[in-house]
Design a protein that fits this description.
The chain is mostly helical and about 140 residues long. The chain has helices spanning about 1-5, 10-30, 35-55, 70-95, 95-105, 105-120, 125-140. It contains 7 helices and no strands.
């Protein structure tokens, strides 16, 4: 069981399942609500849930123990997440979930490119083909239904 819980693949699959549910729940939830306000509500819920989980697991960390570089990049990540959520909810309010979510997943393609450019990671030819297929699939799904 421990190997199961420490597998990145299991956690990544969980992320995908919850991201899919996010799109469906959000599409239903924003039908009569401003998308920016909906993003605010979602953020408050997430903040409370994470605080609860940190408390339950005893994983709070003293802010002074976090290196300055980590603070900077965590703050930048938070700002990027907020911008992503605002854009995502607005897109969901305007478009169809079955089209918005795949375009949002073009982030997979961008992460691969950014990881190579900024983190020095290397992808095999097979991985690049997969990245291209993900991009192509997302674009095909974005076509009008």
């Amino acid at each position: 069981m421990k190997a199961f819980l420490t597998s990145w693949q299991v956690w990544a699959l969980g992320s995908a399942v919850f991201a899919a549910l996010t799109a469906i729940f959000a599409k239903i939830g924003i039908s009569d609500v401003n998308s920016d306000f909906a993003t605010f509500v979602r953020t408050v819920v997430i903040l409370l849930a994470i605080a609860f989980m940190l408390t339950l697991a005893g994983n709070w960390q003293a802010p002074g123990t976090v290196p300055a570089k980590s603070w900077i990049f965590l703050i930048l990540s938070g700002l990027a997440t907020g911008a992503s959520w605002l854009c995502y909810f607005r897109a969901l309010q305007i478009g169809k979930a079955a089209q918005v979510a795949p375009v949002d997943k073009l982030s997979v393609v961008l992460v691969a490119i950014f990881a190579v450019l900024f983190l020095g990671e290397q992808l095999s030819t097979t991985h690049w083909i997969a990245v291209a297929m993900i991009g192509g699939g997302a674009l095909l799904l974005a076509l009008p239904i």
